[in-house]
Design a protein that fits this description.
This protein has a domain at 37-250: 3-Layer(aba) Sandwich (Alkaline Phosphatase, subunit A), CATH 3.40.720. Helix content is 48%, strand content 11%. The protein contains 28 helices and twelve strands. It has helices at 2-21, 61-69, 83-92, 96-99, 116-122, 169-181, 206-209, 214-234, 266-269, 300-308, 338-343, 384-397, 410-418, 442-456, 460-473, 478-490, 494-508, 512-524, 528-541, 546-558, 562-575, 580-592, 596-609, 614-626, 630-643, 648-660, 664-677, 680-694, and strands spanning 37-43, 71-77, 126-130, 148-150, 187-193, 239-245, 270-279, 289-296, 331-336, 348-353, 356-360, 365-368. The strands form two sheets. It has an eight-stranded mixed beta sheet with strand order 4-3-5-1-6-7-2-8, with helices on both faces. β10 (348-353) and β11 (356-360) form a beta hairpin. The structure holds zinc ion. Residues 44-45, 83, 247-248 line the site of zinc ion (ZN).
Length: 698
């Protein structure tokens, strides 16, 4: 009796295993076909557990429906925890140390990389990308292979992560749908939405519905926005392969990490992954499937290639999720290099093998993700053998660190060293100790965040104090000097800004980023004799560095060397033809030369790329005034000030013009605003003049 029961149990178990392995006929399977569209959706900063189908708090009916029609992977991982490196892995099917993009700032995907868009194009698909934020601007190399690359454009003022240019998911989706609507044939579309990235401010009604959890509100909003896009795919006459994932998650305070980029815990490393086929007139009702297999971002390229029947590069480290999934266990490499590159902290690398996760830092970590998914029990001391095995697996990747000889070409390295720089990205320490471990630096991280918050609330001297505290604790932290300098600069204290950067260079040694910023401030304050040699060196080291090229151009212009200035700006525009800042600068130089036609053309090009260019409006105002079109000039200046209340040149011109035209009542608020907000260091005489006017003097 007992034996028979046991036997029956075994039979049932085998049957269950069989169902899991070979789906029944009404269960979803992916159908390979060269004739299908591909829709890749990346949702920035979406935690692996944020969608409702993954147990999240946000209502996400559109993506839940997609998951119910396709395959939802519960154990999917990214290889990096910041936007550009992670998207580079999704797009190339390669680990960060292979494609070379190790951080957002200072990196660009090499043109030699073969991307999904290039594969799609080779195979005859029309290719369109619609991205939601500046970190994926075309200048960073992901545009290769796309017929259409619709990005936010515009200018990212170098302000060290204080703000990103971004646009709402609905705007991105509308542009993508419009493009899809005019495609006569097969297409590959990539849609990137940025909303769940901090700061969390969902639009109505999601703001009130999720008042206590605005991050979930952003997630719900994104799902709402994507509904229309998924509908477009469903109603397409051709079948569409849809892949949804995120680039990384969000700490939301767990492990002491408010956002992402410092650690690589599951909060930020694990990502959602949904694969489904929709549309093409298919009416068959299939039920979706949930897979617990270990899957990775590098598997996305081989999966699409297999389903579209493209010939894929056999040297790719990933594997197709179809057919092979659940076969031999895979190991996934990951890293978090921002702390090393921007802060001089210890580099973080690691592997996930099966359900074991090893994090290589001065204080090593080992977690059993099956038993301890929240990573609360570090098993390194308890289980040295398991640790050794994972260390060996990590070593097998042979991943070079940024700044290693392998990470930079010999040519680049030689050029940098001949100019006195240790490395283009980060000077690497010989030894990192527990004091360099990000786990032991969470309070430094918190002060950095506080600095941003205080800056945003206008408390400049408190913000500066926060960064000084960081520098006292970590004198080698480049980012702290950059931010301290920025806060001083914005507070109208250029001498202190310059001193902060000089202090940084003394502490850290020659560094492209610090010198570029210092050169910028020196140029802006007219100290061109100091600025020019410094910026000539940084632009030789990094000939595509637009911040450095623009700064050099400004320095030349201030030194009265207009042709050299224009050459520097055109070098910036060669690297990025839509560099709004460079267009504005070209316009300004032509304006100084009284070449109004050329100036106007440059300002209009700036506005083409960024309709909200305050400097372009200010420049067009000056041209109008010079040509006697006073009302036109006033309108341009008014627009310039509306866009950027800190455009003090435009504000001065506007107030001054209205006042001298006898329009005192109109002029008054602008005069007051100028007197109250313009930095004395730059506008002392003008403030004095307005004070007298307001006092009834003239
Ligand atoms: Zn991101």
């Amino acid at each position: 009796m007992t034996r028979r029961l046991a036997l029956a149990a075994v039979v049932i178990l085998v049957a269950i295993a069989a169902i899991r392995r070979w789906p029944a006929s009404d269960e979803v399977t992916m159908i390979p076909s060269a004739d299908q569209n591909v829709l890749l959706i990346t949702i920035d900063t979406l935690r692996g557990d944020a969608l409702a189908s993954y147990g999240g708090r946000a209502a996400t009916p559109n993506l839940d429906r997609l998951a119910a029609e396709g395959i939802r992977y519960t154990f999917a991982h990214a290889h990096a925890v910041v936007t550009l490196p992670s998207h580079s892995s999704i797009m190339t099917g390669r680990y960060p140390f292979e494609h070379g993009v190790r951080d957002n700032a200072g990196f660009r995907l090499d043109d030699k990389a073969i991307t999904l868009a290039e594969l799609a194009k080779q195979n005859g698909l029309a290719t369109g990308a619609f991205v939601g934020a500046f970190p994926l601007d075309r200048q960073f190399g992901l545009a290769q292979g796309f017929d259409e690359y619709d990005d936010v454009g515009g200018r990212e003022v170098a302000q060290g992560d204080f703000a990103f240019s971004e646009r709402r998911a609905e705007t991105v989706v509308a542009a993508a749908r419009q493009w899809i609507g005019i495609q006569p044939g097969q297409w590959f579309t990539w849609v990137h939405v940025f909303d769940p990235h901090s700061s969390y401010a969902p639009p109505a009604p999601f703001d009130s519905q999720y008042a206590s959890d605005p991050y979930a509100g952003e997630v719900a909003y994104v799902d709402h926005a994507l509904g229309a896009l998924l509908e477009t795919a469903r109603s397409s006459p051709r079948k569409t392969l849809v892949i949804v994932t995120s680039d990384h998650g969000e700490g939301l305070g767990e492990h002491g990490e408010p956002t992402h980029g410092t650690f690589a815990y599951e909060t930020t490393l694990r990502v959602p992954l949904i694969v489904a086929q929709v549309g093409g007139g298919s009416t068959a009702v299939k039920s979706g499937r949930v897979s617990d297999a270990s899957v990775r971002h590098i598997d996305i390229v081989p999966t699409i290639a297999k389903l579209l029947q493209w010939t894929a590069d056999t040297s790719l480290p990933g594997r197709s999720l179809l057919g092979d999934e659940g076969a031999a266990p895979v190991t996934s490499y990951f890293e978090a290099m921002t702390p090393m590159i921007a802060r001089g902290w210890a580099p973080l690398t690691g592997v996930i093998s099966g359900r074991d996760k090893y994090i290589d830092l001065p204080v090593e970590e080992l977690y059993d993700l099956a038993a301890d998914p929240k990573e609360t029990q570090n098993l390194v001391a308890k289980d040295p053998e398991r640790t050794r095995n994972l260390v060996a697996e990590l070593r097998r990747f042979g991943a070079p660190l940024p700044g290693d000889a392998q990470a930079e070409s010999a040519e680049v390295r030689e050029r940098l060293q001949s100019l006195g720089y240790v490395s283009g990205s980060a000077p690497r320490k010989a030894v990192y100790t527990a004091a360099d471990d990000p786990k032991n630096l969470v309070d430094v991280e918190r002060w950095m965040m506080e600095g941003i918050d205080l800056y945003r609330r206008g408390r400049m001297s408190d913000a500066a104090d926060a960064y000084r505290k960081v520098i006292t604790r970590r004198p080698d932290m480049r980012l702290a000097y950059l931010r301290l300098g920025f806060v001083h600069w914005e507070a109208g204290a250029p001498a202190e800004a310059i001193a902060a950067l000089r202090h940084g260079l003394a502490a850290i040694g020659p560094n492209v980023e610090l010198e570029t910023r210092l050169g910028t401030y020196l140029a802006e304050t007219g100290r061109t004799a100091e600025a020019i040699p410094m910026l000539e060196r940084t632009t030789t080291a990094q000939p595509r560095n637009s911040e450095a090229l623009n700064a050099l151009g400004i320095a030349y212009a201030r030194a009265g060397q207009a042709p050299r200035a224009l050459a520097a700006f055109s070098q910036a525009l060669e690297a990025n033809p839509r560099d709004v800042y460079a267009h504005e600068n070209v316009g300004t130089v032509h304006l100084q030369q009284n070449d109004f036609a050329a100036a106007r053309a440059a300002f209009l090009r700036a506005l083409e790329n960024e309709p909200r260019s305050s400097r372009a409006h200010a420049g067009l105002g000056v041209i109008a005034r010079q040509q006697g079109r006073v009302d036109d000039a006033i309108n341009h200046w008014r627009t310039a000030v509306q866009i950027d209340p800190k455009n003090f040149d435009a504000l001065y011109n506007l107030a001054s013009e209205l006042a001298t035209a006898g329009r005192a009542a109109e002029a008054r608020p602008f005069l007051m605003h100028f007197v109250q907000t313009a930095p004395r260091a730059f506008y002392g005489a003008e403030i004095q003049r307005f004070r007298q006017f307001l006092a009834g003097g003239r």
